[in-house]
# Entry
Amino acid sequence: MAISQEQKIKIMEEHAKKPGDTGSPEVQIAVLTAEILAITEHLQTHSKDYSSRRGLLAKVSRRRQFLDYLKRDDLNRYVSIITRLSIRK
# Structure
């Protein structure tokens, strides 16, 4: 259900602005997107897992906050991350 540490590190390296970057909005959005996809896949087979559904909604909300921040702060970075991760708005 959760993504592995290796997957998380790979995602961080792919979206980092500089080596060791783990806190930029782009990195956090990318990690949250991977976690959301993993939980969504889990919920397709375990439809009555309500605690995972609650966690999914929390992650979606957190990602939305990061996306709203990026949209407000730098529209070019927002559009870039939306297209790279193919997130619909």
